[in-house]
């Protein structure tokens, strides 16, 4: 944090900067850093009128001069949700239109709350989490900056709503490596905006410029600029009065000078009151009513509240503008007080009865057009019940728009107003109900339960049942099955049978670790199917599909297909994406086919379901990993980890990091595997279900690629023990490899094979290939060679999508098949050796060659470049150097020319040509050259 205690200041009213050299240096450096990709948030903090806006304008000027994009917005009242952000983007996008950056496509739905051009395309069922919008704002700012950087000036954040402050707080933590600078002005003193600044300063995440008052010399300089005279020509009486009453506040200096510099009262409020009196009774009433409406106000509303209409209103507004109270705003009928302190002085100068009368009339005029302002006015009028009603409606509206934090704040403010009312007061119950909904959406289950307990004691029977069901659903989302079932019991007592209740209880029962949970969950879900609404049907079908996945993958697919049809028939976007995802996972488990997962991912992106898209991205990483496309798997996992970290999705981030561990392991990089695994555990990865997958699919495969099956067995044994003690909610890919290693080690036999083969785990193609290979080992050991060979052929068909698993399996059984005298171990080990050599799995390739030599098979020395030899030629035994000669034969070169190209002797070339003729079966060089042409064209 940068704190400037001996600061210079700015000259307001459009004048050039006076002093503030240290602040200017900080701002200049921040703007330059943003242009180089090192952005951040810079808070300009101080009391009203101290010069915050002028410094912000200086940042904008510097950015414009550097060719950076500049956007500007100002907060007004906490009811104007996202006002500062909307104004900032609209001021730019109305000229340029929304950017076509493809990186913004997943975030257009979130940005539709800020960008009108995207509102018509906002689909249902999008992620409305505040953190998604915050990430969307970050990406839009980056996009607007192009390659030059962007400076966003957000003013008066002390007046901002809670959700705008949440976005700024997110930017504080995430702009460090982005070409974006946010310059935000915040008034000092108590308030949410100041709290945000203090929190950012404490964690040293932002730059904070705290502005002090002017010293005497600077007051003189500012006065000279305002009066447009040299510094030594400011009239002494005026300067003396400025030094006595302005307190070094630039705004006070300007106000006093704007009043003429003569007869200035001792306090600013007295001066404002005197100037208001000069407007006459109607003019004074108008500006007083306008002050109650805020710094920006609708002239007709202020006029109605003050009883001034028609020509009289126009006359009074003109007089107020001439007296420098107000100026016309950018919209028709909107006026703005020149300075916030003017409105504050007018409000403070009214006697309570006069303020209450004007506030009541203003609130009646406003009605529900501006509930936040109406609430403040009803408070000033002394009608706390109506003020609380406005807060209740504001909370419900914010909740419907996905602004959960704002809903909570509004409901709590309303409850504070009526805390002394009787429990039977209707508005009190309404506020508590909307607060309950907001807490559930926010995932604050403990607070929701506490509030639900209160509502359970003070609402009607019908409402109590609804409260319990909401709390049950919240507990289900949080994985708290015991609390959820307790709430369901309360619903049952109050409301009796209900399909929606059955669906929620079914999911909670599925989560409950009990022997009969599957049977009971299926019974409840089946009952919910009988008369449920489309949403209830989808919820019930999801339970049935999840239960079936543990026993029968095809049955699970049938339930998912049915649910997808329901979702599509009724336009349930969220459920459609969810079941496309479920079906995509089933396709991946059964056939390693990513097509439906890709469709689900694209649908989630198009609908704005950012978080769901991240989860699907993790599943795609698994498919790419098992199919041997390690680069694609790493891209998916790394992108998911980065996005999840920025969105503060802790579990998703750990899952993505777990996948990165597995990718490094499948690449055979022990060092990278250990580095990522240490990060995974440091972030708490051992506490989630996927820890077993990391040990089995990750560490065990790294050990296998090091040709250390004993260590791989230990890794898998730990993984299986963890799964047995803490059954995961996903289908394990550890069971198949575990069975094969156990079978080879003599630790598993026919009974273990049969148990896994008939289970849901055994139905997964990944596990099924290892189960089949285990059967081959058992058959061969029992002397059933033909059955063993048939099982290996079946394994090779199943392993087609999984190249690493395929060749690991061949390498693992080769020695056993040779020892037991069955199959074609030489061919299997040769194929495995070729694959491992081509993929730089040095230890496994060497192990295969050693086994082959032990079997008496001559093994050619591997030279660099052998991976370039086509498989057909490699099977003929063509060497690297012979292949180089063959390639040059295509150009009809003689031995001497080939020798010159390859730095060989002509005699050596002649020997290579003779060997090629023998291996390929050709009689002369012409036939060999034609053969080389065909090989080149086919390759």
What do the pLDDT scores average to?
84
Distance between the amino and carboxyl termini:
62 Å
Q: Quote the beta fraction.
A: under 5%
Structural class: mainly alpha
Measured as a percent range, the helix fraction is 55-70%
Q: Strands across the major sheet, in which order?
A: 2-3-4-1-5
Tally of helical runs = 48
Number of strands: 8
- Rg, Cα atoms, Å: 37 Å
Overall geometric form: globular
Biggest β-sheet description: 5 strands, parallel
Q: Which parts are unreliable, with pLDDT below 50 for 5 consecutive residues or more? A: 1-14
Describe this structure in words.
The chain is mainly alpha-helical. The protein is 67% helix and 4% strand. The protein contains 48 helices and eight strands. α22 runs antiparallel to α23, α25 (517-531) packs antiparallel against α26 and α29 packs antiparallel against α30 (610-626).
